[in-house]
Description:
heterodimer; A: mainly alpha; Four Helix Bundle (Hemerythrin (Met), subunit A); 7 helices; 0% strand; B: mainly alpha; 2 domains; flat
Amino acid sequence: MPNASSALAEQFDDLPQQQESSVLGMWTFLATEILFFGGMFMSYIAYRSAYPQAFAEASRHTIVLYGTINTAILLTSSLTVALAVHAVQEGRSKACFWLLVLTVLFGCCFLVVKGLEYHDDLNEQLWPGPHFKSGLPPQSQIFWFLYWAMTGLHALHVTIGVGLLSVIAWMAQKGKFSAAYYNPVDVSALYWHFVDIVWIFLYPLLYLINRYS
Amino acid sequence: MIIPTKIYFRVWLALLLLLVLTWGLAQVDMGRFNPIAALTIAVLKMLLVILFFMHVRYNKPITWIFVAAGFVWLAIMIDLTLSDYLTRNAVPPTLHHTWQHGAWPAPSKEGP
Lengths: 213, 112
């Protein structure tokens, strides 16, 4: 268990200042991530406003059940990672470890459900290109291009988050964190919540809003 | 700042209720209010996650500024891009004609 003085990097006056700096650093990174995903949301808005009918028809082929289950899984994983931070704040490293393991398992569940959904989508020939499902307007391929790009990029972020939280869980198990020093748990949780927020927007945009319009 | 766990559980419950609500509203034909309702609920869910799960509500103003910065730049990008795309058909026909031969693709027939 590191004591307060060994956890403090020399460029900081005290632990609260160090903690605050790491949170600000993470939010700076998340701002770049907001704009990274923002570019794709921008494409979605632009093309949806240009081809509303084609987008409405195309989006009726997404599978709402998978999307809804995955939203519930990610929201719950956000709870468990928030509780993991809470546990380490109280110095309960063991509880922190198990809550992180639970979060990683939820992340894996999300990826498995997404994989099943991708499998069904491919069977429905919803991959844009020469073999795209017939009977849909040509511009609906733009929707499906965005679907694969956005959910694929999001799934990549989930995968990175699963890897990140696994390492943090391993470190918690090794007793690297304490109530005085837990910055890595805190900022990794912020990353996981961000991934959750991206999905909170992908869910209505890809699965819901064109069902009945 | 340690937040009581009951707040986390309440936020989680609220998030799941909003999920059920947004799924339910999508089953009802509300015309152009469908996307408005879905996105309003998404924004509410995002605020719950940012303010409570990500502790921003309990952080200092400097964190608020850093959080807002990302969204302000996103708003600038969306605003400037839409000020182009959404006004293309507002251009008078003669101007419109010359514009079609410019670097930009012709606006869609199906568009707004």
